[in-house]
Amino acid sequence: QVQLVQSGGGLVQAGGSLRLSCVAYMRTFGSYAMGWFRQAPGKEREFVAAITWSSGRTYYGDSVKGRFTVSRDNAKNTVYLQMNSLQPEDTAVYYCATDPLERETYHHITQYEYWGQGTLVTVSE
């Protein structure tokens, strides 16, 4: 079984920064990559970023490129999402998720097997 436990998030003013964390608890290591998604009220869940455990290769959604950075600490089984220059449109519930397979891209929600509990990020004007 896999359990993903998220932390971080909260309320921040526009232009500010936040960092999210996601710890992966696994009995056997069955994850090739970790992704971050977000879902704003009334909208579909959107790809934000992903990173592979082995090489650390990263992937970003167009709306966050240059502002968000995904990283991982393999020793801690933890993935981070550093969010800078936050804007009100970044307000959403953010989720981490694990993908068990090696792929060319990690943008598709259906690729992910286990999900964190979600954490709310609110960016005020």
Brief digest:
With 125 residues, the protein is an all-beta fold.
Task: Fill in the keyword field for this structure.
mainly beta, 7-stranded mixed beta sheet, 4-stranded antiparallel beta sheet, 11 strands, 51% strand
Describe the structure.
This protein has 125 residues and is an all-beta fold. The chain contains no helices and 11 strands. The protein has strands at residues 2-7, 10-13, 18-26, 33-39, 46-52, 58-60, 68-73, 78-83, 92-99, 114-115, 119-124. Strands 2, 4, 5, 6, 9, 10 and 11 form a 7-stranded mixed beta sheet that branches. A hairpin with a 6-residue loop joins strand 4 and strand 5 (46-52). The protein starts with a strand and ends with a strand.
Percent of residues in helices comes to under 10%
| pLDDT < 50 stretches | none
% residues in beta strands: over 45%
Q: What's the N-to-C terminus distance? A: 41 Å
Rounded Rg: 14 Å
Structural class: mainly beta
Order of helices and strands: EEEEEEEEEEE
Largest beta-sheet characterization: 7 strands, mixed
Shape: globular
Number of helices: 0
SSE topology sketch:
Layout: E1 2-7, E2 10-13, E3 18-26, E4 33-39, E5 46-52, E6 58-60, E7 68-73, E8 78-83, E9 92-99, E10 114-115, E11 119-124
Parallel strand pairs: 2-11
Antiparallel strand pairs: 1-3, 3-8, 4-5, 4-9, 5-6, 7-8, 9-10, 9-11
